[in-house]
Amino acid sequence: RAIHPRTKSTRFSALTDNILQSMQGWLLGDFSKIVQGHYEIIYLILPVVVLAYVYAHRFTVLGMGEDMATSLGVNYLVTSAIGLMLVAITVSVTVIAVGAIPFVGLVVPNLVALYYGDNLARTLPAVALSGATLLLVCDIAGRLLIYPFEVPIGLTSACVGGVLFLILIVRRAQ
Length: 174
Description:
Blueprint: H1 5-16, H2 20-27, H3 45-54, H4 56-62, H5 66-71, H6 76-98, H7 104-116, H8 120-145, H9 153-173
C-alpha cells in the first residue's frame, strides 16, 4: 500500500524535529502535555458554556423541528447558527488543547438523555459531569494499564465509548 508523498514528508519532518509524539497527540487525545501554560486556551470555553446554557431551552425547541420551533416563536435559522457556532468553538478549543477524544460527545449525551429526558436546560450539567467522569476514568485506566507508560486518553475513551455505543445500538434495535 503506497503512502502519499506529502504524508511521508510530514512524518519525516516530525521525526527529525522530535515532534512525532506531539503530532500523534492531535490524532489521539492525550492529557500528558497539559501543564501550566498549555491549558489556558480552555478558558475560552467558559463563556461558550454560559451561552449554551442561556440558549438551552431554545435548542430543545429546535429539536422538535423547524415548523414547531417557528410556531413557538424561535427563529430556526438564527438559533441553529448560534448552536453550530457554539459547538464549533468548543470542539476546536478542545482539539487544540488535548487532541481528538472520540465518542465522548456521542455516547454521554445519549446516555444522559435516556435517563433524564431531552430537556437540555436540565440535562446540560449532567452531560458535563458525566463526560468529565468518563474522561477521568479513561485517563486513570490509561495511566494504570501499562504502568509506567501511558496510553493516550483518546485510545481508552475510544475503546470504552465504542463498547457503550454498541450497547446503545443493540438496545435500540430490540
